[in-house]
Specification:
The complex is a heterotetramer, with two copies of chain A and two copies of chain B.
Chain A (H helix, E strand, L loop, with lengths): L26 H15 L7 E5 L3 H4 L9 E4 L5 H11 L4 E7 H6 L2 H10 L3 E7 L2 E2 L5 E2 L8 E2 L3 E2 L7 H7 L4 E6 L3 H12 L5 E6 L15 H7 E3 L1 E6 L14 E5 L5 E6 L9 H14 L2 E8 L6 H4 L12 H4 L3 H8 L4
Parallel strand pairs in A: 1-2, 1-3, 3-4, 4-10, 9-10, 11-15
Antiparallel strand pairs in A: 5-6, 7-8, 9-15, 12-14, 13-14
Helix pairs in contact in A: 1-7, 3-5
Chain B lengths: L20 E2 L2 E8 L5 H13 L4 E6 L8 E8 L11 E6 L5 H6 L1 E10 L12 E5 L1 H8 L6 H17 L3 H11 L4 H21 L6 E2 L10 E4 H11 L4 E4 L6 H15 L10 E4 L3 H13 L4 E5 L1 H6 L1 H10 L3 E9 L5 E5 L4 H5 L9 E3 L4 H18 L2 E7 H5 L1 E4 L17 H7 L29 E3 L13 H17 L8 E3 L6 E6 L3 H13 L4 E6 L1 E2 L3 H9 L3 E5 L5 H9 L7 E5 L8 H11 L3
Parallel strand pairs in B: 1-8, 2-5, 5-6, 6-7, 10-11, 10-12, 12-13, 13-16, 15-16, 20-21, 20-23, 23-24
Antiparallel strand pairs in B: 2-4, 3-4, 9-17, 13-14, 15-22, 19-21
Helix pairs in contact in B: 1-4, 1-5, 3-4, 3-6, 4-6, 5-6, 7-8, 7-13, 17-20
The chains are: A alpha/beta, B alpha/beta.
Bound molecules: thiamine diphosphate (2 copies), iron/sulfur cluster (2 copies) and magnesium ion (MG) (2 copies).
């Protein structure tokens, strides 16, 4: 196709990363593609994004998109704290975090929960494949009880439901999706990027090398068979608002902090993602029925972000002038008087 | 107290001693913690300080909130010494549980003030006793119930002041400062002070030799704890993020930042904070946040103690290798493990130097006074951003939590050094950028900050092996050249850290090397040794890695005592590693029992070894 | 491969070289990882091994699962050497992406087997080429689709076997072992091997000098990786709990335990497990579990690599100070930080020795062969329980994940040493018990286990300062005496750790000290140096702290090269600290680029420095 | 009172610990008393118990009960892992774990969740006072959003609901209580000691020194005013069963693994603690209504304990004979054959 420029004058290719070194068919690659597409389509300048990750195949993926964005491939399970610090230092940038189920549900669970508690404004993607890909296929904490992997055996423990964890931690944006449903992933990503607070996307992202058997709830085939979207979601950017028309009876809308809209077209039964109890129930139902329920499970725009809770100045701290950083000579003399 | 006197003091019999001992004693107030004796002790020490008398205050407290023995020691020193002493001349006994032990620890000829409702035996006849009718005085003053304990403590302030000659006007002044001028509490407390002094005047006759007199030695000085000083230093150094997790004895540093930040760092226009202080969920998160902020271009720090340092090992290695500036305060306490949270030590030196698996070498600053806590508080950021590496400031409980005199802190003259940061304009001019290229040959590469508006700006920070472009590389040559550059940088560090403080004496035979909070004891010990005819040279280290001056000092002296408070002689080991050719010159003088070193111990050790 | 040949090899022109080179070459198979070349490489190396030819196999793989270059090197050595060599004589090129680089790295006179569908230039005329019709052979054999890649790799096995003279019967035998006798896969793969060999016989004419001949040097030996050896050692040492967290290159140790435990450690009566293997949520939890189990009386261990070691710092200090036995395997990889997960190094030595804030000194065992991985695997438990302290076993990626020959492991003769544990009967007899009392003067106290049925048995384990009765104490004397005892214990440790291995040569001028996986390279280097007339003495350390023998060796030699794979010369530093009087004797010979040391590098370094 | 011996011939005093060093009135002390009373009344031999804790005032308390039990005052936030190891080494002993809200909800959250995931059979008490007592009163992660402490200021973050966390982690025994309600604490402790799996007791335990203001939801006065028990709970040991009689209409019973019974006498509305959804709803209601809902919130006896999931031998590993620990010489020779 002929290269077309987006609103900030960039081509699709300006959003690409280094060639991926992940396995062919890895779910993580398809998520990377959606990230690039979304940033291009929303005309986000790559310089206004930071990429964050922990350690794992999933956490490597930020190297494979947005070469023109700064990134930090931090430590295993520690992306949330690094992201918290970065966003406190510069609240003008948007953060795209990519983690894995091992990175988040095993070693990183504590930081994950506490970042949500503080409502650190970042998009927090978990590329959830139920295994440790990079260390060659051991069970992660999201693997189903009773699942069997050859060479490794049976997993005797209950899985961690990362969306339920997010609900328990009062996260204001909780979504689940499936790497095999790129359209939904894309719309959810767009919405998440407009949300001022922690936006959690628990995306089932099959590991084709170690956990893609039909019997695995983290496989492509399982996902294709069991995905049940709770609604058909469309993101409408601010400028486009006027143009969109939709059937109000069929569709509920949610307005985001920047004025953009999410259109949720109801499928069989209608579902209200602003109802906390309903969200928890939905997750419980999904567990019982073993369905891969996807979509925007819960949204609450009323929680202040970390920076607002801390009453922080709008200017990035990293850009403050010396005189804003160093109090006056007089102030020092004044306060030392109390110690005489 | 648990320490027994090891140095003889004059007994009252001895007539040569009949003339008064002025401004020269250690007084310990033995109380139960949680009974609010801070106010009364502060009032006493501040009053003495304002009378121009050199003082220091040390609080020896248990790892407990309420109900266990606590000892607050005030030392006055005509010569201006501020180290701990073994001997206690004056005991203010407010805790019956430890009375006998406390009494036993009094020096011969000492003085014992005690609450008259104690049921104890006064089984020493070489001590002067003054009973204090605390309950009576309470009845008299009738303080509000919830303030009873606090006011009760003011009784000993009044009596002690009267008997030693502490000016009550200064006590009042001290209380006014303490209560930030609030009249009500001042009056309430002074009521008791006056009543008690009054009572003493009427009922007690001075029998001991100790008293105070106005002096002029504290003119213009301040008195403060090291953690507050460090906090102020950080605030004047442009601290933008403090991410911390509570731990004794470090908490009060972050808490002082929290207390002072609003008045010092609120944006006048918007009324909003130009900083952030986050109490993290643990130390891993605390340093993680600081490193994230350092990467994004803010001046970020964390403060902790031993256990937190252990938990920060992995992140320290990341910051060292990805070259992210961050400042870490370690207010050292007694270890290993949880150890003694309320006792002091210098036991983290060796561990911090090599903190992080694989090959690491960390920069350490070693403040030896509250003045240096302030100075290193801001300078640490300059060094960290200049070197793009973690900078540790190693203080300890004694320096951090106790009260020290100091000249007023010097306002930082030099502008902040933000290090090698490239702007969009720079990138435009240069036309290319390689994050880890050694452009200047000093091992320090250039960095760009997230948000820099230029297509060349971006780089991918990582703890994995990388080439000059921050791209993952397993090539042996990439690894080796990057490590060679990093080692070059650890050498460059020598020229950015504070030089040691040298004091060579005429005809010095022995030399001393030390660092941190041992300085006052050493200064005093050297004077004593000098008196006994033993001149010594002294170098106080203020940083690792060592500078040229350190090398010169080591070369110049054949017998070097390394004085420190840890079990393993840790700084001695770092010196031996740095100067193998002189490895046998270093003699460990280490003592590590949780209490600050004393001049007595040091001088005894040295004269013994020097065959004096 | 990324390493270029640095040592000249005979060029084909040179007639003196016309006679064949037998059992003496390095062959590298260059593939893409994730294409299942393990089976084929194992078949080759095992066939050679069973022909009685000394072999070693090293897999140089990326930190990646699929699609990146991987090199598997098989070295055969008539003299029985097993170290890495810079030079490669035979290249089996299965990866077009790296072909030119791989070809360039071939020694003059080398041989290049390559897939005939490559579009590359054969731009060297000092190399013999053999094109391999892989696709053709696949068409001929018609393997099931999902096995295509695997079987394809068997093509080079057949061709290489034919051209080098590897006995196809041995290849079949190797496959039978590999597939545990399952006929189907054996047949399928042998079909390809035979077809390929057949094809080679018909279409290729031998032009190079390299071939193999039966020998008898591997009689009775085994070939294995160090992690499997360590796992077996642990299982024969009574390991009861392995708590671990996956990390390269340590995972395969815990996984080998998991694979072997059921057959070795299932209770015959109940059919239940007499052990537990827990994949923890992280390394903090892993070592925490191991310490909990060690406290409760089980033989517990964890295995990890650098980043995990950093995370274990706080718990290590607790186990050291509360005196809980636990075994920690550190399969070292390249650091600092995440570093290079699939490259080898010896960079954790210094950090582990002092791991934990405050004053700590940890015991380290340093296996230098897979035989020692097995031996230290069980012995570590004896030492840990005897000393009641954490014992670290420091292996590395090269030793742990590559294939080494060894005599069969010796079954542990001595009964297990469970250390100083008091039973209810003991307590009844003794009538008293103090957990931290130095009854025997060796610094090692007695302990009781939870569940011991006696009123005197209980004690409260803690990381806080304690007296002899394990009761919290802030008394200076309690702290000091406890630390003095602990230091006594760190000395006692010397008499329980393995002695070094000494090899003094007649008229040796220079001496070498090394440890761990560098041993094969040093052995070979010393032979070379000997040939060149330079005799050397050699001590291979097997533990820290150092024993009497180490001291004697250091005293006896004036110039001591400390050979190691890290950037900072870490063992050199530990030696300098231990022997300050000889600090200048130690010369660092350290190289740290992620690849195992070679005899060539070592001998060149030494002869250069020795002015040979 | 005259000293009376329990069924194992011990007096109450045999269960005491060292004198407490905690503050007067500290909730932790009253919980310690209940622990001693319970072990005495249930005639548990102290030698059969291990005491576990992390770091904090709460974690100090095991020094103040059961002197005759082994104990491990471990590291801050790490009690769960140490307990896991100890119970794997000796499954014959019962574990009493005492932690604090800082120890569990802040630094220890990850280990807490993963111990429950593995169903480590221990009584896990959280002495929850909303602050860090031992470090002098900073907010912990269970402090309410908006709470103000003088000297410290306002807490801007959402609290961690430890019972909800336990539900999310599929814990099989979830209870909440109040140190000011010793009778309930005692019955819940007895039940927990009979439960084979992780039994979580989130006990509001006021910090009289730093967080006992009437306005604080962690204070005595608040608790006294707002405690709403969901039932009146009585524990009936196995041997006593026959004697008890109760009105079945009024009371539901739950049988525990060892055959003992819990009697739940219904108060105003009846509540079924075996209903997972109901339990979650109850917790959500409690949060909304700011009531201190106490009692046995959820119980599920069907999850296998860690040791059973791992098919472990009944004999404590610590007591295995040498020949059970070291396989035979022949076995070694046999397996080495594969490596020739
Ligand atoms: C502290 C630490 N422990 C262990 C490892 C080894 N490690 C690397 S990736 C990984 C797990 C990754 O799993 P996940 O987060 O699910 O990512 P995936 O590879 O499945 O996408 C582990 C354990 C590490 N790098 N650091
Ligand atoms: C690794 C580590 N960080 C910090 C501390 C300091 N510390 C001791 S107790 C404590 C908090 C205790 O709070 P909580 O668990 O709620 O117990 P409480 O005192 O309130 O009963 C902290 C942070 C420590 N001991 N170890
Ligand atoms: S191992 Fe699995 S997770 Fe990793 S790259 Fe391959 S498919 Fe993806
Ligand atoms: S400080 Fe609070 S928690 Fe700690 S002992 Fe005192 S009352 Fe209890
Ligand atoms: Mg995963
Ligand atoms: Mg608490």
């Amino acid at each position: 196709m002929a290269t077309t420029l987006n609103l900030v004058g960039l081509e699709k290719s300006d959003y690409k990363g280094r060639p991926t070194t992940l396995c062919q068919g890895c779910g993580h690659n398809s998520i990377s593609s959606q990230i690039m597409a979304v940033c291009y389509e929303l005309s986000i300048r790559p310089e206004d994004i930071i990429k964050l990750s922990g350690i794992g195949c999933s956490s490597k993926s930020p190297a494979y998109f947005l070469n023109r964005s700064h990134g930090f491939n931090s430590l295993h399970g520690r992306m949330p704290s690094v992201g918290t610090g970065a966003l406190v230092a510069n609240r003008a940038i948007r953060a795209l975090g990519v983690s894995g189920d091992g990175d988040t549900a095993s070693i990183g669970l504590g930081q994950f929960v506490h970042a949500m508690r503080r409502n650190v404004p970042m998009v927090y993607i978990i590329e959830n494949n139920g295994v440790y890909g990079l260390t060659k296929g051991q069970f992660s904490a999201t693997a189903d009880r009773g699942q069997v992997l050859k060479k490794i055996g049976e997993n005797p423990f209950m899985p961690v439901d990362l969306c339920l964890q997010a609900m328990a931690a009062n996260c204001g944006f909780v979504a689940r999706s499936f790497a095999g449903d790129p359209k939904q992933v894309k719309e959810l990503l767009k919405a998440a990027l407009s949300f001022e607070g922690t936006a959690v996307l628990d995306i089932i992202s099959p590991c084709t090398t170690f956990n893609n058997a039909d019997s695995s709830t983290k496989s492509y085939s399982w996902g294709k068979e069991h995905e049940t979207p709770i609604h058909d979601i469309t993101y409408v950017p601010v400028r486009a608002e006027i143009e969109v028309d939709y059937d109000p009876g069929e569709t509920t809308t949610v307005e985001l902090h920047d004025g953009s809209l999410i259109l949720l077209k109801k499928l069989d039964e209608s579902y209200d993602p602003t109802d906390r109890r309903a969200a928890i129930n939905l997750l419980e139902d999904a567990t019982e029925s073993q369905q891969l329920v996807t979509g925007l499970i819960y949204i609450n725009r009323d929680l202040p972000s970390l920076q607002d809770a801390e009453n922080m100045i709008e200017t990035p701290l990293a850009e403050l002038a010396a005189e804003q950083l160093r109090p006056s000579r007089e102030s020092l003399e004044a306060l030392l008087a109390d110690y005489r | 107290m648990t320490e027994v006197a090891t140095r003889p003091a004059p007994s009252p019999g001895d007539s040569s001693e009949r003339e008064p001992i002025v401004n020269d004693f250690s007084m310990v107030v033995a109380t139960v913690n949680g009974t609010g004796s801070q106010t009364s002790n502060m009032a006493l020490i501040r009053a003495l300080f304002r009378m121009g008398i050199p003082v220091t205050g040390k609080n020896l407290f248990p790892s407990n909130i309420q109900g266990l023995p606590t000892w607050f020691t005030i030392r006055t020193s005509a010569e201006g010494y501020s180290a701990r002493r073994e001997t206690i001349e004056i005991l203010v006994a407010m805790n019956q549980a430890t009375f006998q032990e406390d009494l036993a620890s009094l020096a011969p000829g000492g003085v014992c003030f005690y609450a008259d409702d104690f049921t104890v035996q006064l089984n020493r006849d070489d001590v002067t006793y003054y009973a204090m009718p605390i309950q009576e005085l309470i009845k008299e003053v009738q303080p509000p119930r919830q303030l009873k304990d606090y006011v009760a403590n003011m009784a000993y302030v009044g009596i002690v002041a009267e008997m030693l000659g502490i000016d009550l006007a200064e006590v009042r002044g001290a209380l006014e400062t303490h209560f930030r001028g609030k009249a009500k509490p001042v009056e309430l407390n002074m009521q008791m002070v006056d009543a008690a002094a009054e009572w003493a005047r009427e009922h007690l006759t001075k029998q001991d030799l100790f008293r105070v007199e106005r002096d002029d030695q504290t003119e213009g000085l301040i008195i403060m704890d090291g953690n507050t000083a460090g906090a102020l230093g950080a605030l004047y150094g442009g601290m933008s993020l403090t991410a911390w997790y509570p731990i004794t004895p470090a908490s009060s540093l972050a808490e002082a930042i929290r207390d002072y930040a609003p008045q010092l760092r609120t944006d006048p226009e918007t009324g909003k904070a130009t900083y952030s202080i986050i109490q993290a969920e643990d130390e891993l998160a605390a340093i993680g946040m600081a490193i994230g902020a350092g990467w994004a271009g803010a001046r970020a720090m964390t403060s902790t103690s031993g256990p937190g340092i252990s938990l920060m090992a992995e992140f320290t290695g990341l910051a060292f290798f990805a070259e992210i500036p961050v400042v870490i305060w370690d207010i050292q306490r007694m270890g290993p493990s949880t150890g003694l949270p309320t006792r002091t030590s210098q036991g983290d030196i060796l561990f911090v130097r090599f903190l992080g698996h694989g090959d690491t070498k960390n920069v350490m600053l070693l403040p030896g006074s509250i003045g240096e806590c302030f100075e290193f508080g801001w300078r640490a950021f300059d060094i960290a951003e200049r070197l793009q590496t973690p900078v540790f400031v190693l203080s300890d409980l004694d320096l951090g939590m106790n009260l020290w005199m100091s000249p007023p802190f010097e306002y930082p003259e030099a502008p902040m050094d933000r290090g090698k940061v490239l702007s969009a304009e720079d990138l435009e001019r240069l036309g290319s950028f390689a994050r880890y290229k050694d452009v200047d040959g000093d091992g320090i590469p250039y960095r760009t900050l997230p948000g820099t508006d230029h297509p060349l700006a971006a780089w991918f920070a990582r703890g994995t092996g990388h080439n000059e472009h921050a791209v993952y590389s397993e090539r042996p040559d990439d690894w080796v050249s990057n490590m060679e550059r990093l080692w070059r940088k650890t050498d460059t560090a020598r020229s950015y850290v504070p030089e040691p403080i040298l004091d060579e004496m005429e005809g010095a035979e022995a030399a001393l090397i030390s660092y941190g909070s041992t300085d006052p004891a050493i200064t005093e010990a050297r004077d004593r040794l000098k008196e006994d005819g033993l001149a010594t040279s002294y170098m106080r280290l203020r940083a690792v890695p060592f500078t040229e001056q350190v090398a010169a000092f080591v070369e110049a002296h054949e017998r070097i005592y390394v004085v420190e408070m840890n079990t393993d002689g840790q700084m001695r080991q770092l010196l031996q590693l740095e100067y193998p050719q002189y490895a046998t010159r270093f003699i460990s003088l280490n003592h590590n029992d949780g209490l600050p070193l004393t001049a007595y111990w040091i001088s005894e050790q040295i004269s013994a070894r020097e065959g004096n």
